[in-house]
Amino acid sequence: MDDFQAVEFRREGACANVYAARAGGRAVALKVSPVRQTPPHDALNEIEVLAAVAGDRVVAVLDAVLDQARGQVVLVMPLYEASLADAIDRGVAADDVRTITRDITGALAHVHARGVIHRDVKPGNVLLAGGRAVLADFGTAWPNLAAPDAEPADAKITDVSTSVYRAPELLFAYGAYSDRIDVWSWACVVAEMLTGRPLFGEPTTSEIGLANAIFRTLGTPDLATWPEAAAFASFAHIRFVPHAPRPLAEVLPVAADARAFVARMLVYESGRRASARELLADPYVA
Fold first, then answer.
1. What is the spatial distance between Cα 284 and Cα 154, in angstroms, rounded to a whole number?
2. What pLDDT sits at residue 13?
3. pLDDT of amino acid 7
4. CA end-to-end span of the chain, whole Å?
5. Which residue in the list 120, 137, 179, 182 is annotated as catalytic?
6. N or C end of the chain: smaller count of CB under 10 Å?
7. Over the chain (286 residues), what is each successive 10-residue block's mean pLDDT?
8. In 3D, which of 265, 259, 258, 266 has the Cα closest to residue 279?
9. Are strands 17-23 and 126-129 parallel, antiparallel or unpaired?
10. pLDDT score recorded for residue 2
11. Maximal CA-CA distance, the chain
12. DSSP letters for 168-204
């Protein structure tokens, strides 16, 4: 931190603080994380993952500094104007929603093609500048590139993603989930851009509470509509109130093409959920 000028605190996260600063005559953002973290948080893995998925719609890393004396990792990145969370608070214009949706759908397709699951897609992790968007914060991304055996593909950590953006399979501790958890989260974010409010209500820390909110909106699933749930240890032991799905036009009173795009992602069975690559060909963003 001593090598940067005009350092200004911006925000505090669960496992990192973000600062604005100047370095080499340019404005930068500094993400400062402790070296030692509780999985799935891993600042050193974030550096490796960002190098592996570098691309136009993924946040760039200008430098990475390991401060052994302070036990910190400092990621140096471009300073962006705002996050999508800021933009949603102000209201996002329809044309901007389409552009941001195209950008981040492309980012997810790029990341997933490289075998990486982001695991925390939410408005605060989408950064905006000049009318374009990039995907940021890979601090909980899978896999751990330095120690791939630490989190096997069929037994991944399920305490990932944030509140109302969590995919339903995570709510039932299904460790064999795929990159489609990012797709579900992205559906929730796009819906929130379109309406200005969270799709499944206010943030909650209760898995059952969120599951019930999803079921009240999309209908209560059974093994016919959600075969994957047969592998969930707890699904068969909980009796959920049966709800019929609400008309999507009522849930998302927006343009038909935008609504159809979101609907392709809001599918209980993850194998039937559209992939990010498939979504890039959707008329809404193509």
1. 34
2. 80
3. 85
4. 43
5. 120
6. C
7. 80 88 91 93 95 97 92 95 95 95 98 98 96 95 90 96 96 96 98 96 82 95 95 87 96 97 98 98 96
8. 265
9. unpaired
10. 63
11. 60
12. HHHHTT-TT--THHHHHHHHHHHHHHHHSS-TT-S--
Length reported for the chain: 286
Please say whether the beta carbons of 191 and 206 come within 8 A: no
- Count of C-beta atoms within a 10 Å radius of residue 234: 13
- Note whether 55 and 101 are same-domain residues: no
Shared-domain flag, residues 229 and 92 = yes
Q: Is residue 285 part of a domain?
A: no
Which CATH number fits the domain that encloses residue 12?
3.30.200.20
Which residues span the domain enclosing 64? 5-78
Judge whether 103 counts as a catalytic residue.
Answer: no
Sign of the four-CA dihedral 254, 258, 261, 266: negative
Cα–Cα distance, 162 to 219 (Å, whole number): 22
Q: Which two tokens stand for residue 218?
A: 């999309």
Using CA atoms, how far residue 107 sits from 94, 113, 214, 257, in Å, is 20, 10, 26, 21
Report how far apart, in Å, the C-alpha atoms of 268 and of each of 8, 89, 156, 214, 252 are: 43, 29, 19, 10, 18
164's CB contacts (< 8 A; 6+ apart) are 188, 198, 199, 200, 201, 202, 203, 204, 210, 213
